[in-house]
Write a structure and sequence with these properties.
single chain; disordered C terminus; 11% strand; 51% helix; mainly alpha
């Protein structure tokens, strides 16, 4: 029978490094939130980036685009995708058919 302990043992210096890293991430998140909301900046992803985030192939993204599930725009001849597309529930369901998808 396995030990069902609810305690995780970690070295002090490793824990301190984790906390420091976490604080840096929170600070960066606050900065990005400020930029996005106050400065009204629109964040977009390239095809490669949206494929990576959604765990889909470019072909699968194209199919979702054709169905109207993924919104996109063209800027300077390049197709870009809104970052809000990564949170749409039906994309999560389609992505789950292929690979695990982290819910944000």
């Amino acid at each position: 029978m396995e030990n069902q302990s609810k305690v995780i043992v970690i070295e002090r210096n490793k824990f301190a490094a984790l906390v420091k890293s976490h604080r840096k991430c929170l600070q960066m998140l606050n900065i990005l939130t400020y930029i996005y909301t106050v400065k009204e900046v629109s964040l977009t992803l390239t095809l490669q980036e949206i494929c990576e985030v959604l765990h889909m192939t470019p072909e699968e993204v194209e199919i979702q685009r054709q169905k109207g599930y993924i919104r996109f725009t063209t800027q300077k001849g390049m197709t870009v995708y809104e970052t809000t597309e990564t949170k749409r529930p039906h994309l999560q369901l389609d992505a789950d058919k292929h690979t695990p998808f982290p819910v944000y």
